[in-house]
Amino acid sequence: MASLNYLYGKPQSQGDFKQNPEDFVVEEELDIEFTGEGEHVCLQIIKRGENTAYLAKQIAKFAGVAPRDVSYAGLKDRHGVCTQWFSVPVPIKKHIDFSQLNSDSMVVINQIRHNRKLKTGCHKGNRFVITLRNVTNHLDVLSRINAVRQGVPNYFAEQRFGHDGHNLTMAERLFSGEQIRDKKLRGIVISAARSYIFNQIVSNRVKEHGLAKTWQREVFLLSGSNAFFEDDLNDEIVERLSQGDILLSAPLVGKGEKGLTEVERIWLEEFADWHQGLASLGLKNERRSLRVVPKDLQVKTIDPKTLQLNFELPKGCYATSVLRELIEHKDVSLIEKPQNGELET
pTM value? Predict the structure, then answer.
């Protein structure tokens, strides 16, 4: 992340991030109306200092089902206080009081039946409350707030790439012919490779054009969808962009040339081996929004060295991508206990 270009210039303030679990509060927001009946029980849980996969195993053990039968919308960071939903199959005539799982690290705050299990990505976004400590220049942070409210580069964050970029090292080995037999690890490595290339393309665009300028021919992403199309710039396109109906985008590369602009093809030459490797795995070209806009971004000065940020992001976007445009932050939680594979989604 350090080498990626900043949209608003490198911040002049430093600060500590996640000094305590309570400094990183996340609330998952679902877009589901529960039926109140059915063979699945949905659990809303507040967790502290535990990762999502571990809690899923605990729920499975308590319910007497296989770990794979417990599902959730997205992974949440271990080092924080996070509210998220899980689902577990429970026969209609059987009642389980999941509040018996309550402990210092997790509390079940809601339990409701539903007619289907939760699927990955079924949430609409996450609400963050972040406390930054030992801030060296809080006025520099405040001076950037209005700019950041307009959006920041939609970079994938460091969690995607593993501690010290381990997932990218594995990707290099994969594309050199080494086999990864663990399907879950293989998926993480492939995702990391695509994410890395995406970040580099976005960084190039930030450096040369920023995120506001529109090329004469673009690949546009339909808002709220994975669908995309290529078109020349015209009055209708300009209007749809202004209304947020379509978005500027960058590639998540795969097989074929569909969904790539001429400039992107040139930029991708540097990553030809990885691009070819991803294509050989059968992945299709996809697109991701260039910019992410933090909704309702608010800042509160607790004292000159302590700031609290409050904002909402769509699913799949990272709070740290917002933070990096505001402050040069040090993740204190990683100093003693580095974690791989945990994503903010």
Answer: 0.91
Neighbours of 210 (CB within 10 A): 12
CB-CB contact of 141 with 135 (8 Å):
yes
- CB burial of 213-234 (b: ≥16 within 10 Å; e: otherwise) equals eeeeebbbbeeeeeebeeeeee
User: What average pLDDT does this structure show over 39-58?
Assistant: 95
Dist. CA 275–CA 289, nearest whole Å: 19
> Cα(95)–Cα(215) distance, rounded to whole angstroms?
58
| pLDDT at residue 336, rounded to an integer | 53
Active site residue 232: no
- Tell me the β-bridge partners of 41: 88, 113
Report the interhelical angle of 183-209 vs 166-175 (nearest 10°). Answer: 100
What torsion, rounded to 10 degrees, do the Cα atoms 59, 63, 69, 74 define? -20
Instruction: Using the CB atoms, write b or e for 22-46: b if 16+ within 10 Å.
Output: ebbbbbbbbeeeeeeebebbbbbbb
- Identified catalytic residue from 23, 77, 164, 273: 77
Q: Which helix (H) or strand (E) holds 312?
A: strand 306-314
* pLDDT tens per residue across span 126-183: 999 999 999 999 999 999 999 999 999 999 998 889 888 899 999 999 999 999 999 8
Q: Which residues have a Cβ under 8 Å from the Cβ of 259 and sit 6 or more positions away?
A: 219, 228, 230, 251, 285, 286, 287
CA–CA separation, 320 and 17 (whole Å): 10
